[in-house]
Amino acid sequence: MDERYRFSILVTEVILSSDWWYKSCKDCRKKVQMEGDTYKCSRCITTVPMPRYKISLNAIDADAKRHEDSPFARFIFWGQQGEILTGKQVLILVAEANSRAEYTPPELTGLVGKKFTVIATPTRDSLDGEHMFYQVESTEPLFEPANPENAQPPTEETQGENESQDNTLEATPPPSPSAAKEEENDSTGKRRKRNDHLSNKNKRGTKKDLFGQQPAHAGTEYTDQN
Question: Looking at the 3D structure of the chain, how many domains does it have?
């Protein structure tokens, strides 16, 4: 299952029943095991464990109109994605925990209610699980739009800047008829491509497939443009 999908998610629960970090091999990132008085990796020759994030959380579609009725999916944030999620390096939170098994960093509990845009890959747990499981490859906070009621009134300085920009726009000469026609054709072509993309995307499935109980081979599929 190597498909990648882009989501806008709303975190509803952080899974605290599983460890949010583990001791990994510094070379292959596999979990190391204690043997005698040292740690060993089953794959590499290493005795130096490194803490690494493994944060599991449940999330729903951030764009859903009724959150209480929305199906959820399980997202797992490893390593660097965990650092982006919490805003802190794993070493800092592990040090704060100070070997207290019952301690949960506020950086984790504070994730509930936050929104993120992620690119994730379905895992094989989705085949047998009651809901979808995804491994996150890219994480970006999804900020709420500014509230107009809380907007600051313009000052004399900012008002002067706006008036200066308006004067600049008014002084800009209109495009020539040939340039305007070329821009219109370009806009029409882009709109046609977008409509074709949306049509193909709808054929592949819906967001409900991605968050529902069936393994998803369809939906908002992500393709790297680079």
Answer: 1
Q: What is the pLDDT of residues 37-61, one digit of tens each?
A: 888 988 888 778 899 999 999 999 9
> Under a CB-based contact definition with an 8 Å cutoff, are residues 114 and 12 in contact?
no
Residue predicted with more confidence, 101 or 95: 95
On whether residue 224 sits in a domain, the answer given is no
Residue 219 lies in a domain: no
Q: What is the spatial distance between Cα 16 and Cα 7, in angstroms, rounded to a whole number? A: 23
Tokens of 38: 């040292």
pLDDT at site 37: 85
Contact assessment for residue 63 and residue 53, using Cβ atoms and an 8 Å cutoff: no
Beta bridge partners of 141: 116
Per-residue model confidence as pLDDT tens digits over 128-148: 767 899 999 999 998 665 554
Please provide residue 45's backbone torsions phi and psi, each rounded to the nearest 5 degrees.
Answer: -95, 90
Reading phi first (left if > 0) and then psi (alpha if -120 to 50, else beta), residue 128 is in alpha
**75 CB neighbour count, 10 Å cutoff:** 25
DSSP category for residue 214: S
Contact indicator for 84, 111 with CB cutoff of 8 Å = no
Residue 219 reports pLDDT greater than 70? no
Q: How far apart are CA 137 and CA 207, in angstroms?
A: 19
Instruction: Give the range of the structural domain holding residue 91, as residue numbers without chain letter.
Output: 5-144+178-211
Q: What is the pTM of this model?
A: 0.65
